[in-house]
Amino acid sequence: MSSRTTLLRRGRVIDPRHGVDGVRDVLVRDGLVAEVSETPLNVPDAQVVDADGKWVLPGFIDLHVHLREPGEEGKETILTGCRSAVAGGFTAVVAMPNTKPVNDSVLVTEYVKAKAREADLCRVYVAGAITKGLQGEEMAEMGALVAAGCVCITDDGRPVMNAGLMRRALQYATQFDLPVMVHEEDLTLSGKGVMHEGRTSTRLGLIGIPPSAEVAMVARDLVLLEETRGRLHVAHVSCEGSVRLLREAKRRGLRVTAEATPHHFTLEDEAVGDYDTHARMNPPLRARRDVEAVREALADGTIDAIATDHAPHGVLEKQVEFDKAWNGVVGLETALGLTLGAVREGALSLSRAVALLTDGPARAFGLLGGHLAVGAPADITVVEPDVEWTVDATRFFSRSRNTPFHGRRLTGRVAQTWVGGRLVFENGQMKESR
Going from the N-terminus, what domains does the chain have, and what CATH number goes with each? Predict the structure, then answer.
């Protein structure tokens, strides 16, 4: 993904990895950052982009995206998912393996990579399954998945209930220095629950899911991590108890990283309202104390990354009774605005918010990008920080519309997305090469 020379002039460059926050010129050449200068640059052969009044940020990286292809292309395809990603400022995403068929093989891994190359928009990294068919019974061929290019393994959407199998997965993954991403849910505790166990579930007469369903599994896997000395990544943290355990594990030097979603640090369980299925997800929206704990963990480094858990579903899977609706929301195109909402409310500093979308996820999985030093990939997100806009799900680039944020006013919009020095999105329009 290379292009001609480009000069992004006089934008506010925020690069948390290198402590940069100020007006700079950014010169891009041959798909890489060639220079970042406090003084204006004069480059006669460069395409000049006026970034005055805008933020010039490292491209966002999402560690947790469901692209649905192969098998559920009616919800999303790799192409439409990539369009949604770059519209949201994401220059790289990690595709989850719960496709049909499951990505537990080299064949499916190669298929996803081929379709991503064909889409030619953002970088698509691939996650392989921990267990064959996500059944939690037999480990997938981890070595083959790593050789094919998988950057982590996960049974996301399902927990690995078998502790012995989970321990073996962590042990084996150490041979490849591979992160094991976990969906933390004790099924014996969550049972047939459909939302957070609390006042709202009681009022609505819905079966609740207690926080212990998540926290107990986090505790188990941290014990296994300490024994195996592997790498653990905890997906979509939602509970105060999980935060306490993660904070202590990091203090003790365990190799654990974690992510949180914008919906979990923005909404409480009361958002379910009168059976709004767009507010049904797994883990469920939690109580105010949990939301506050997740925000504190994002701010203090206990949680490393903001990830969307972008989970597209069709209309018929949401327009049903609450207890029959599918879990999940789309999140790529609203993540920036919701994150900046937390900044305006004082929960996060701007630098920390940018780090959670860029440097944090890059470090967690050892991915390219996440910063704008000379020689880094020219994956860049240009933001208009003061633009107010209203979320309109009917205008998403995603093929699906399942969001609890339709109609919400947000501030901060993606103006441009550059991947490898090539402009792929600008002012609401795709800039596809085909």
Answer: 6-56+376-430 (2.30.40.10), 59-365 (3.20.20.140)
